Amino acid sequence: MSQFQKRIFVAGHRGMVGSAIVRCLVDQGYSNIISRSHSELDLTDQAQVRAFFAEEKPQEVYVAAAKVGGIHANNTYPAEFIYSNLMVEANVIHEAWRNGVGKLLFLGSSCIYPRLAAQPMAEDALLTGKLEPTNEAYAIAKIAGIKLCESYNRQYGCDFRSVMPTNLYGPGDNYHPENSHVLPAMIRRFHEAKLADAPAVVIWGTGSPKREFLYVDDMARACVHVMDLSRETYAAHTEVTTSHLNVGTGEDLSIAELASLVSEVVGYQGEIRYDTSKPDGTPRKLLDISRIRELGWKPEVSLRDGVARAYEDFRSEELVPS
């Protein structure tokens, strides 16, 4: 069997990241991709996951399924975020081991790092300080996923890997006005303000926090790149206790600068105001991506180009009138 015929299960294939991974795999020639919708397979249900793995016997697994959201959603529904994410990763990783999966890639998040971690945040900053309170439940679940992979590698000799993406955006994003991440929320807000000829758009917080953004198809390429590495090469660039790799651009900008960029791309001409009664979240979240760069990957899509593509995707989905 050629490597392009391997049975690959992409958990969360309908989400923004999972669908990008599927696109990347198809573009590279992989033809045996296994997927299930939530109605077909509830990944929080241990019995369903066990039956699925026993029947399908995937050879590689991408764990892109997750419950995600912005500050408001994380702060409002912490029980849902920690429960859903813990159950999904525990069920999928455990059954991958039980069924002899050759390689697994777990996708985490840059919010795993301490709120006041030194910038840029290197992989070994994990568990060196307190987390950001507004998304602590989600972060703890993602840290548990990393440690699950490390533990199964140590005890059973598995080849389970982890990547920690920065803030992602692009086709398939969630543009909900309250529960989405900052960039898609801005795209929707500025678009609606342009249509309504609104005099101002209000942004949460002070505008001073700095964030890093990565186009989702760049992230997908990174995922496939990391999975294609030999076990020896991956191990040489990670450590036993920090076995994950950061994935980002290595560049960030303030929320105020992001708002200006999005308003320009959308074509909104009004004023941008800031509601300082709302939380800022972590002051800065910039990833040190030196390890994955050493492994031969780098981002290709600039932020301005990526925002323009995301805006076109938003309008094409007819989420709101254009």
TrEMBL record:
Substrate binds at residues 189, 204, 211, 280. Residues 8-231 form the NAD-dependent epimerase/dehydratase domain. Pathway: Nucleotide-sugar biosynthesis; GDP-L-fucose biosynthesis via de novo pathway; GDP-L-fucose from GDP-alpha-D-mannose: step 2/2. It catalyses: GDP-beta-L-fucose + NADP(+) = GDP-4-dehydro-alpha-D-rhamnose + NADPH + H(+). It comes from the Bacteria. Keywords: Isomerase, Multifunctional enzyme, NADP, Oxidoreductase. Its EC number is 1.1.1.271. NADP(+) binds at residues 12-18, 107-110, 142, 165-168, 181. The keyword Membrane does not apply. GO terms for molecular function: GDP-L-fucose synthase activity. Signal peptide: none annotated. The active site is at 138 (proton donor/acceptor). The record marks 109, 111 as: Important for catalytic activity. InterPro entries: Epimerase_deHydtase, GDP_fucose/colitose_synth, NAD(P)-bd_dom_sf. Catalyzes the two-step NADP-dependent conversion of GDP-4-dehydro-6-deoxy-D-mannose to GDP-fucose, involving an epimerase and a reductase reaction. HAMAP family: GDP_fucose_synth. Belongs to the NAD(P)-dependent epimerase/dehydratase family. Fucose synthase subfamily. This is GDP-L-fucose synthase. It comes from Variovorax soli. The gene is fcl.
